[in-house]
């Protein structure tokens, strides 16, 4: 199995380098690369960065670019890392693409932090891709949801079945 991993940005990839005026975040190299380098994966993967944005800054043009990339790439197992604020919107925009299993995931705490949920969420997403044949899904909070049957609880921030 080979998985295409697409970085779009979001908290999962945030880094907080020290600057002269304190700390300011930037979206850096893909967190998935660091996670998989230490995970001894039994599969091949390719990581590409389409854009590095906070999910609240993702535009219709960005989503068009992502969907076009998905439609034109030969991969049939795809993991997309994304910010949690608009993750559902992007998943629903992508929709189901014939012959492709797509899972979007992110993190509430940057991968660079020791108490991050990033590695857990990526692991759940990869596990889901092992079982999925087609469709677009979201993997967050240890759960896997159909992209059109999930909501983010405004009070808890948790993803829940709709």
Q: What labels describe this entry?
A:
L-asparaginase N-terminal domain-containing protein, single chain, asparaginase activity, alpha/beta, 162 residues, Asp/glu_Ase-like_sf, L-asparaginase_N_sf, L-asparaginase_N, 12 strands
Count up the domains. Answer: 1
* Rg of Cα set: 15 Å
Oligomer: single chain
CATH fourth-tier homologous superfamily: L-asparaginase, N-terminal domain
- Tell me about the largest β-sheet: 6 strands, mixed
CATH topology: Rossmann fold
- Helix and strand composition category: alpha/beta
Organism: Roseivirga spongicola
InterPro entries: Asp/glu_Ase-like_sf, Asparaginase/glutaminase-like, L-asparaginase_N, L-asparaginase_N_sf
Pfam family, one: Asparaginase
Domain L-asparaginase N-terminal: 2-156
């Amino acid at each position: 199995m080979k998985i295409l991993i697409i970085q779009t940005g979001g908290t999962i990839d945030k880094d907080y380098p020290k600057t002269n005026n304190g700390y300011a975040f930037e979206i850096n190299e893909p967190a998935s690369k660091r996670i998989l380098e230490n995970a001894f994966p039994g599969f091949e993967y390719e990581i590409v960065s389409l854009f590095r944005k906070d999910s609240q800054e993702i535009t219709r043009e960005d989503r068009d670019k992502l969907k076009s990339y998905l439609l034109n790439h030969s991969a049939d197992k795809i993991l997309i890392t994304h910010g949690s604020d608009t993750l559902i919107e992007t998943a629903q925009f992508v929709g189901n693409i014939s012959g492709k299993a797509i899972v979007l995931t992110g993190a509430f705490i940057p991968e660079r932090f020791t108490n991050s949920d990033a590695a857990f969420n990526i692991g759940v997403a990869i596990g889901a891709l092992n079982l999925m044949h087609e469709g677009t899904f979201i993997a967050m909070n240890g759960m896997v949801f159909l992209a059109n049957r999930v909501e983010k609880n405004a009070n808890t921030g948790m993803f829940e079945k709709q």
